[in-house]
Amino acid sequence: MTEKxxxxxxxxxxxxxxxxxxxxxxxxxxAASAWILYWIFISIDNILQPVIKVIWGRTIPxxxxxxxxxxxxxxxxxxxxxxxxxxxxxxxxxxxGMPLFHQLYSGIKQIMESFSPAAGTSRMHPVLIDFPRKGxxxxxxxxxxxxxxxxxxxxxxxxxxxxxxxSGGFMEVVEETEITRTDIxxxxxxxxxxxxxxxxxxxxxxxxxxxxxxxxxx
Length: 218
What we know:
Blueprint: H1 3-56, H2 63-79, H3 82-94, H4 99-114, E1 125-130, E2 137-147, E3 153-160, E4 169-175, E5 179-181, H5 186-194, H6 202-208
């Protein structure tokens, strides 16, 4: 086998494992969420169906699914009021004492909150900032911004852990002059993060070699 063939095989192997890693890390949080919802559905259905059969003499397909939707809506309404928020805060204060569940819950919660409609995903934009010190670049996402009466802006930039963003990350508050705007898509940004830089799309590479920064709005 020629050296060129070996090089092509190695390159194909790297691409294969990179794509496989992206797929696994991407699907795990969503698969875990789906599994939890399925478990809730089965549990509710197993409780409801015997009761329904006693009352109506037969089971009703879909009753567990309907009850699960009602439960999720009820939790949403409860979580939206003051008492519900306090109950959730209390429950979350207990979770850190459960190591495995804490990691799973925190990872899924961060992913779901970051990409939910309420979080304004459409406004999340990949940027580069100096982190953890000057001269070292980090790929992050603008999640929100603040503006005072003088027009000065502060930006909240989330820097996810690599290669597993579900394990958390860092939240930096920086001025606009500290941000390097990019044309990197969210997909390309996460592809770079998921592979720990093994796969770097062209737009990411181009942004890393671009030193220009936008002017500060007045």
